[in-house]
């Protein structure tokens, strides 16, 4: 069952900050301990079984295995339960009010992301095999219809060892914040502006180069229509885009298609999460969440300065 928070949910969070902080600290400690046990218990079980087998003490082998399985299952269930409870508490009392400060919020789904088909259709990120998303937001920002969420895209890679055996693992291609804004003005062709970043999947050559050498060096430009490129990428706007990338402090790419603009910030972390915030003050958490959203809204503010797309 998915969690949906709407604008009425925040009213139920009447617990004082001190009590709320105490609850969160307790839940986070339990989650941390459960994660440690989930990692330690299998290793401890292997050592215990090896010791019992080496001494020939078979009488206690099955009970020991059963006890370890019971403890591991219990810690896993506690981890799942407390993690979910912490996320719901955080969403209702911290995340939702912060989002309502910034957006005219219509919907918040903490366990969902912008639809995979929409991310794929933008063609901002190439060659990925696995998708996940979280903290989906639908609403308005400065009168614009927006979608926002964290997105994680991974590529499957296959390894072959000396014996010819194969194994697979996943490599992160993109992880960060993704926003889609509808500016209301139709463009005749798609335009991709992708920052040349840590990912080698971005093609190094642009379809069209501008007169701004620094912009050409930093971004790959893809479009089948040169008129659209120069209509959107005015000299001033190219400076705005470069400024936006500096504000985000992470590789930032844009897709202009129809009346929509996709903003993808490859920050390599999720937003609106506790694992990157010291849990000593609720104001610290609120301010951290505000700053993470501001990285994206600052870019929208710069886009609004371009009268050719708005």
Explain what you see:
This protein has helices at 17-55, 61-102, 116-122, 213-218, 226-232, 235-248, 282-303; strands at residues 104-109, 130-141, 144-160, 166-182, 191-195, 219-222, 252-257, 260-265. It is an alpha+beta fold and 310 residues long. Strands 1-2-3-4-8-7-5-6 form an eight-stranded antiparallel beta sheet. The longest helix has 42 residues, at 61-102. The protein is globular, with a radius of gyration of 24 Å.
Topology of helices and strands:
Elements: H1 17-55, H2 61-102, E1 104-109, H3 116-122, E2 130-141, E3 144-160, E4 166-182, E5 191-195, H4 213-218, E6 219-222, H5 226-232, H6 235-248, E7 252-257, E8 260-265, H7 282-303
Antiparallel strand pairs: 1-2, 2-3, 3-4, 4-8, 5-6, 5-7, 7-8
- Share in helix: 40-55%
**Count of extended strands:** 8
The 3D shape can be described as globular
Largest sheet: 8 strands, antiparallel
> CA-to-CA gap between the ends?
39 Å
Unreliable stretches? 5-15
Give the DSSP E fraction (strand runs of 2 or more residues).
Answer: 15-25%
User: What oligomeric state best describes the polypeptide chains here?
Assistant: single chain
**Radius of gyration, Cα only, in angstroms?**
24 Å
Q: What order do the SSEs take from the amino end to the carboxyl end, as H and E?
A: HHEHEEEEHEHHEEH
Q: Spatial order of the strands in the main sheet?
A: 1-2-3-4-8-7-5-6
Number of domains: 2
**Structural class of the helices, strands and pairings?**
alpha+beta
| H/I helix tally | 7
Overall mean pLDDT stands at: 80
